[in-house]
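subagent[fold] <- orchestrator: predict structure for attached chain, return tokens only, no commentary.
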Amino acid sequence: MNIFASISVLALLIFFHEAGHFLAATIQGIKVSGFSIGFGPAIIKKEFKGVTYSLRALPLGGFVSFPDDDKASGIPKDDPDLLSNRPISHRLFVISAGVIANLFIAWIVLCGQATFIGLPNQTNPGVLIIDVQQKQAAAISGLSPGDQIISIDGINLGTGQEAVENMVSRVKKSPGKTLSIEKSSNGIKELIKLTPTEYLGDGKIGAQLQANFDGSMVSAKGFSEILNYTNAKFSNLLIKTIQGYKGLFTNFSSTSKQLSGPVKIVELGAQLSDQGASGLILFAALISINLAVLNSLPFPLLDGGQFALIIIEALRGKPIPEKIQMWFMQSGFFLLIGLSILLIIRDTSQLEIFKQLTNK
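subagent[fold] -> orchestrator:
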């Protein structure tokens, strides 16, 4: 059930992203020919008012298609309602609308949680381990997702986000030093040794942390507290996501190990949904922000890549040759599919059930 909920949330976020493109085009009177979730062959296809809606075999994203390059559409190439014939500002709005939609959805779900469910009760001490990287310090020490870190060298970490910041600070200051960690797993407490590795002068353990949260909620004291919580949580998630992607450029060899494919994302969603509705909401906000930041990157096939092409066109004063645009997009497609397959294979091999099967 948790896996199904995780997949459903992921599919909904992809839908909202593509819906952003679709709505940005239609409200401007721009002709749209297709709305698809997934890539590859269509499993379900339905035409309605000139738009073909489809669900496709590879659930790795989605796309909105336009009749500009479809010679069989019967629409004259000089039709002012074709996307390619619209002003730069109209096209940029259509391209950026998916990113805007994901950021908006992330803010809305966090605000909805604070309004209708309540604020997370962060009185539980310590830090919760959400995920660990294989062969990194946390995994080597015996830490696993679901473990709770209570103290380091006998000093309590505190509660809430402060506990996370205290642990991060202590780890960063301790590269190569052995720390005594008090952890709690399924109610059983024990002391373990953890030695952060050195990374650009700081210590790192290869673990994803979160404030220790048992799923209980407390009612907000007023609208101002709801807004303060929503804005603070949204900003925190957005900044950390940007910093994570920034690391791909500044230190790819190390940060690339943290890349997650569809399998790992679904597993993370299942783990967070164990915390109830609040955990699933956090997963939705986190993935929605990740989709927004990822699609902002100026890479082929991503929104950022198309945005960059339009900006170059504006600077040149004329469109980029079709052959170059086609090569740019096709290379991005094969890169995306290849990377996704590699991540799926890697993440599947790291699943606990897969390890149990291979060890038999």
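orchestrator: received. Logging for downstream: The chain is about 50% helix and 20% strand. Residues 1-120+218-360 form one domain.
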